[in-house]
Amino acid sequence: MTWIKKLQIQHVALFALLILFIVGHAKPIADPDVWWHLKTGLDIIDTGQVPREDRYTFSNMGHEWIAHEWLAEVIYAFLYKAGGYHGLVVINIIVLGLISTMAFHVCYRRTKGNLTWSVIAVLFIAVILSNFWTFRPHMFGYLFFTAYLFILYQYENGQDYLIFLPLLMLLWVNSHGSYIMGIILMGFHLVAHLVDFHLGRYRGKKWPAGKRKKFLLALGTVVLATLLNPNTYHIWLYPFTTVDAEMIVENIEEWMAPNFHHIRFQVFALLLAGVIFSLLLSPKKISVNDGVYLLAFTALTMFGGRNMALFALACFPIGVEHASEIWPFGGLKTVNFAAVNWVLVAVLLVVGILNWPVFASIEDYGDPQEYPVGAVEFIIQHQLKGRIFNDYNWAGYILWKCFPENRPFIDGRTDIFVDRVLPDYVKIIEARQGAYEILMQYDPDYILVPPDVPLNTLLKDKKDWRLIYHDPVANLFAQGR
């Protein structure tokens, strides 16, 4: 049968990525924000309303909240209700598959059909993105970002799919704050084609007036589409208030600049060097747009490590295009045998089945070494109710297990805490001068923190607080009234 012979090595590579994703999610959840995102989505489904103010924490109750990720949270919550943990895995497999397919197509076109380099690029993209594979709205952000890259590249090469950009933006602006990158990408392409430009190896080609007007119309429609969200024009302020917040950038790990002592950033540095050397050694001209991409997304990554996923999606296709000019090998074509490919698929399928998540409840994937599982069970068993000053990374788990009987002090929605609560949290948890007075102004009933934070030492000297539970992961203090 002809369909049997059509299975090619690029299909095997994509299937391998999906199996890798399954394997990655057969382990406990390490991302602490998954819990509150899922909780928010379930609450939106139950109430039929997108929240406009904080109702989860006792420290910030009633504070305005721009719930900019509500659509992605509802999708995750709906699939969790329908299929449990397996539903979450399935939707992320679909998202990853779409990202990989579009990225492969762009690389294949850029390298003029070089299968080897296209597969290598997609694998490298997967390596970088694997640091962010989790059940959070940013997965949809990566999907829409890749779709914009795909459509814009097609437009550069004579295929017009601009009509889809406003619809994608409508979904993007309601799913993740990275929607602003869609407008920025379009701005890059527009500026790069305003005039003819030649300087050394750099080139820019002016678009004809008709093509430029059509693009401007699409850009204007995309900007208008950003207003179609529950927060209307207020959504425009969100990306800038978050990025510009010094307290967030200095204290929240995913927003910090890359620490090249960590292996994931060392891998990024090697891949960045590979892209740069490919451009330097390649005889091919460098388009203005590609040069802007490389500079902009390298700078973004150096500003915040979480942006290296955007760098990989935007810049690896550029790198392999030039690498294929230096070394145009096509090794995969020589081993592209249907029988071998089917054997590989069969092996991968067995690996996927063996690693398919066993449990349907997300609670079974709460790592007792990462979350205060024992302490929370103690709270539930003893029916302890009230306000809990918590470690930042534990709020989502507390909300998932204990809300509304217990409310945490702070959670991962850093944008609503940056003006007051987050600075106070840092002072309290680190037991800085005046920390106890600040703590008591919030009047918590319980304190749940890791045993190694300085706050423990401060509390042990206070007669108003007593340790009622402890294990290697968490200490639980109760205020004695």
From TrEMBL:
UniProt keyword annotation of Protein biosynthesis present: no
Keyword vocabulary terms for this entry: Membrane, Transmembrane, Transmembrane helix
Coiled coil feature spans: none
Record's keyword annotation contains Ribosomal protein: no
Residue intervals passing through the bilayer: 85-108, 115-135, 176-195, 215-236, 263-281, 293-319, 339-359
Protein name: Glycosyltransferase RgtA/B/C/D-like domain-containing protein
Species, as recorded: Thermincola potens (strain JR)
Record lineage: Bacteria, Bacillati, Bacillota, Clostridia, Eubacteriales
